[in-house]
Amino acid sequence: MPKSVKSPAPEAVRLAVRKTYKLYIGGKFPRSESGRTFVADGDNVALASRKDARDAVLAARAAQPKWAGATAYNRGQVLYRIAEMLEARRAEFTALGVPGDEVDAAVDRWVWYAGWSDKIAQVVGGANPVAGPFFNISAPEPTGVVAVVAPASLLGLVSVVAPAIVTGNTTVVLTAGPQVAITLAEVLATSDVPGGVVNLLTGRYAETAPWLASHDDVNALDLTGVDHPGLAAELERAAAGTLKRVIRPRAATDFTADPGLRPMTALLETKTVWHPKGY
Amino acid sequence: MTVTVSAALSDLRSFLHGLPGVDKVGVEARAAALATRSIKTSAKAEAIDLAIRMVDLTTLEGADTPGKVRALCAKARRPDPADPSCPPVAAICVYPAMARVAAAALAGSGVHLASVATAFPSGQAPLEVKLADTRDAVAAGADEIDMVISRGAFLAGDYTKVFDEIVAVKEACGGAHLKVILETGELGTYDNIRRASWLAMLAGADFIKTSTGKVAVNATLPITLVMLEAVRDFRERHGRIIGVKPAGGIKTTKDAVKYLVLINETVGDDWLSPDRFRFGASSLLNDLLMQRTKLTTGHYAGPDYFTLD
Amino acid sequence: MFEYAPAPESRSVVEIASSYGLFIDGSFDGGKDGDVFKTVNPATEEVLAEVASAGPEDVDRAVAAARRAFGTWSALPGAERAKYLFRIARIIQERSRELAVLESLDNGKPIRESRDVDLPLVAAHFFYYAGWADKLGHAGFGPDPRPLGVAAQVIPWNFPLLMLAWKVAPALATGNTVVLKPAETTPLSALFFADVCRQAELPAGVVNIVTGAGDTGAYLVAHPDVDKVAFTGSTEVGREIARSVSGTGKRLTLELGGKAANIVFDDAPIDQAVEGIVNGIFFNQGHVCCAGSRLLVQESLFEPLMDSLKRRMATLRVGDPLDKNTDVGAINSAAQLTRIRELSEIGSVEGAERWSPECQLPDRGFWFAPTIFTGVTQAHRIAREEIFGPVLSVLTFRTPDEAVAKANNTPYGLSAGIWSEKGSRILAVADQLRAGVVWANTFNKFDPASPFGGYKESGYGREGGRHGLEAYLA
C-alpha cells in the first residue's frame, strides 16, 4: 500500500533511553548504599562506599563454598557461557570505545580459562612418591575470597577476574572503567554465573581498596590494577594483617600475551593428603 | 525375636556398629537413578490414588486452632468434594492438644488419628513428661503416636537410653501404633540413619519416620532408601514388617511418585500399602488432587479449584 | 507389584535417511564401487538404513583428504582449533536427545543410558579436549609438541558415539586430522557426527568417516599414508593390527578386551556393592570392555551377597531400548548373541551353576537375560574368556592376597573393582592389581579428565585426561 503523500511528517526524533550504571553485588544491581554517584564520560555512575565493599565481601563469602564445590566441568561450562554472551554483546563494548580486537581477545581469554577449569589440577597437582606405604596426593584448592583491584581495560579486567574464579574463588572487584565494568557485569549476570561469584564495584580505589586489604574475611588481594606505588605498598601492608596472598602490580603488564599459570596458581592453595596402604 | 533383641541389647553398640556401612555416593546415585523412572498414564493414576491413601495430612503449628483442625479433618475424609471416587487420606497428624478435636471430627471415617508426642519436635524433656504426653494423646483418641528419639542421646552414643525410651513409649501407647521419628537431618551420616533405624525397630517401633519437618533437611530419597533397606533386612532377620514414613519436603506428585518407585524397586509389594508406608505432608495432597484431575480431564488444573484448609 | 505403563521416548526427534554415503573431504558421496550394507535395529531387526561400504579407493580418497587438510589444520593457532571443538561440543549438547535416540535405535542400548551416560560424556569429552588445544605446551610433553599427521581410527559398536569422541577429540585438539571407521553394526551416529562437523563449519577433510566391515578397517590401518593408528575392539583384532603396523613407524594405541575382577570384601557397603556389581556387568548389556565380569567374593560373604544380588537382579527391566524405564536393552547383533549363548552353554557344561531372574524377552530382536554363574573357578572358560554380554561369573576368595592373585591371573588387565569400607585395604589392593583402571566402591565410572586404558593384552596407550594427549603428539 502506498504511503500517504499528503503532508510529509517531520523527521521523527526518537529520544534514547539511557542506562543507569549501578553496582553488581550478589548477582543484583544495587545503587551504592551511600546514595553517591560520580560522573564518568558524562554518565552518573554509582560511587561505591566501604559499606558496599563490606556487602560485596559478604556476598562473595556466601557464594564461595558452592562455587568451589561445583564440578570443574561445570565451572568450565559457565566460563564458556560467559565467552558466548560476551561475543553476543560485542557491539555494546565497541560502542563504549573498546577496540573490536580487544573485545575478541577478551572473549578468547574467557575461552582459554574455561578450558583450565578441569586441567589445572592435572598440571600443578599429582601423586607424590613418598618413601613409605602411603598414598600421597597433592591437589590445588581455591584460596577463598579474592579482592581485586582491576585494570581499567576490558581485557585487563577479564584477565584478572577469570583466573581467580575458574578455580573456585569468588571475587570482589574494584574497577576503574565503570561503563565497561558494569556492561561486563551484565554479561556475567546472564551467563549462569551464580550471584556473588563476581562482585563489581565502581568508584575510587583509594577509598575502598584499604577496607578490602584490611578485611579479615578476605583471603587474597590482587593489586594488578593499582598504578600508584605508594597505594600498592600501603595495601600490601594492610593485607599482611591476615597474611593475605598478594599479587603485586607489575609495570606495563601486556594483557595480550599468554598469561601462563601464575594468575591462577597465585590464588590456589595446595592440599596434600596422606593415607596408609595395607590390608 | 525376643531372644535376638535381648542378645543385641546386651551389646547394642557393637551390634549397631557392626551393620554394613552405607556409601554416600553410591546410595545417592541409586536414589537418583530410580528418580528418573517415567511413570505415565495408567501407572500414574494408580500411583496418585495410592499416594493419597498414604498421606498423613499434617498440621503442626503453634497457631493451630480447633477450627483449623476441623477443616483439615473434613479435607482428610473427602479430599476432593467434586469427585466421590477420590479416596480419603490415611491419617490426620496433629499436636496432642488438638487430638480430641480431631478425634471427634474423624469419628466413623476410618481415617486414622496420629498425634506427635514425646516433647515434639526436640525430644528434650524428661521421660516422665514424654510418657505423659503420649498417654494424653492416646486418651484423647489418637491411634497412632509419632514420637521423636533423643538425638542428643543417640549422638552421644547412649544407645541404651534411646532404646529404653522407645520401649517405654511403646508401652505407654497401649494399642496405638508407634512411629519413631529419627530426625535424620540431625544424624549427620547415612551410617547413623541405618543404626537409628535398627535401634528403633529392635525397641519395638511399628514405623520408622524420617523427620519432624522442623529442621533444615527433612525427608530425601536416599535417606528413605537407607530406611527401606533397614526394614527389608529387619524383616528378613526377625520376620516382622516395619513401616516407613518420610515426612517434610514432599510437596509434589512427582516427588511422591519417586518414593513409590523407590518402594517398588527396593522392598516391593509388601510396603505399597498405607499400613506400611505413609507420607507426612500437607501441601502434597492438593498437588496430588490437581494431577488426578489433569489425568481425568486431560487439561492442567489450577489451584483455585481445590480447597485450601 | 506396581506396574509401570510403557514410557517410550519419542522416535520422531530423529530422522534417519534410507541410505548414507561416506563422509570424505567435507561431503557425502556413495562408495566408488557402490557396495552397501544394512544396519538394523537389534531390538526389532528392522532395517534402519543402507550404508555405503568403503573400498580401498574410498579409503585412499579419505586418507588423501585428511592429508590435504592436515597442513592448514595443524597450522591453526590452538585457540582457533579449540573454538571449533567447543562448537562441536555445544552442537552435541543441543542435539543430544536426537543423538541419544539414534544411538539406542542402532545399538540397542537403553535410552536411559544413551541419554544419561553416553551423550553427556560425548559432549564433555569434546569440551575437555577443546580446552587442551591451546594449552599443549603446559601438558608436560615439551614446550611446543607437534601433531603426528593423519590418524586412522577404528572404533567398536558398544559405545559408538562415545568411542568416536574418545578418538576424534584428542586427535583434533592436538592438530591431527582423522579418518574414522565406525563399527559395521553401528555406523549411524558417526554419520550424524559428520553433520555436526558440517554445522560447526569444520574445515573439509579434518574429519572423514568411512563405513564398512573389517576389511575396510584393515585396509585403513595398513594405509601407508597414515601416521597414527588408534583402535578399540577385540584383543584378536588388536593383535593383527599390531602385526600390520610393525616396521612402519606408525604410532599405535590399542584399547582391547578385558575380564575385570570386581572384588567384594566382607566389610563392603553391601547395598552399594550390589548396585556396583549390577552396574559392573549389566550396564550396556555387558557390552563393555571394562565390565566387572568376574565377581570375586570373600567366602564369608558369599551367601548373603548372592541373595541380595539375585533379589536385585529380579528388578532389572529388560526390553524396549526406547522405553525410558528399561535397564537392559538388546544384544547388539545376532553374531554377538550367538557368542554369548555359546559361552554360557560352555559354562553350564563345565559345571557352573546358572541363574537368571524370570524375565519376559521380546519375540523379535536379539535378547539375552541377565545371567550369573556361581561355582565358577579359574579353570572355567567363562572365568577366562571375555563374553561381552550380561553374564557374570562368580568366584570366591579367602584373603586379600588370594583375591589379588586371582584378579591378576588373566592375560587381560583393563579394569578392576574393590569394595571395602577400609581405605588402607583398598589402596593396598589397588597397588597390586595389574589393571589400568581400578574403581573402589564404584564401578564403570568415566570422565574425560580421567585416563583410561589397559595393561597386558588389554592394550596400550591411554585415552582421556592429560595422558590421552600423548598418543597424538610427536
List the helices and strands and how they pair.
The complex is a heterotrimer of chains A (279), B (309) and C (474).
Chain A: E1 37-40, E2 43-46, H1 50-69, H2 72-88, H3 90-95, H4 100-116, H5 120-124, E3 126-127, E4 134-142, E5 145-149, H6 154-166, E6 170-175, H7 178-189, E7 198-202, H8 205-213, E8 220-222, H9 229-239, E9 245-247, H10 262-265, E10 268-276
Parallel strand pairs in A: 5-6, 5-8, 6-7, 8-9
Antiparallel strand pairs in A: 1-2, 3-4, 4-10
Helix pairs in contact in A: 1-8, 2-4, 4-6, 8-9
Chain B: H1 2-10, H2 12-17, H3 24-34, H4 41-53, E1 55-58, H5 66-77, E2 91-94, H6 99-106, E3 112-117, H7 127-139, E4 144-148, H8 151-155, H9 159-173, E5 177-181, H10 190-202, E6 207-209, H11 221-238, E7 243-245, H12 253-266, E8 279-281, H13 284-297
Parallel strand pairs in B: 1-2, 1-8, 2-3, 3-4, 4-5, 5-6, 6-7
Helix pairs in contact in B: 3-11, 4-12, 4-13, 5-6, 7-9, 10-11, 11-12
Chain C: E1 19-20, E2 22-24, E3 27-29, E4 36-41, E5 46-52, H1 56-75, H2 78-94, H3 96-107, H4 111-132, E6 150-154, H5 160-173, E7 177-181, H6 188-199, E8 207-209, H7 214-221, E9 228-232, H8 235-245, E10 251-255, E11 261-264, H9 270-282, E12 294-298, H10 302-313, H11 334-349, E13 353-355, E14 371-374, E15 391-397, H12 400-408, E16 415-419, H13 423-432, E17 437-440, E18 459-460
Parallel strand pairs in C: 1-5, 6-7, 6-9, 7-8, 9-10, 11-12, 11-16, 12-15, 14-15, 16-17
Antiparallel strand pairs in C: 2-3, 4-5, 10-18, 13-14
Helix pairs in contact in C: 2-4, 3-4, 4-5, 9-10
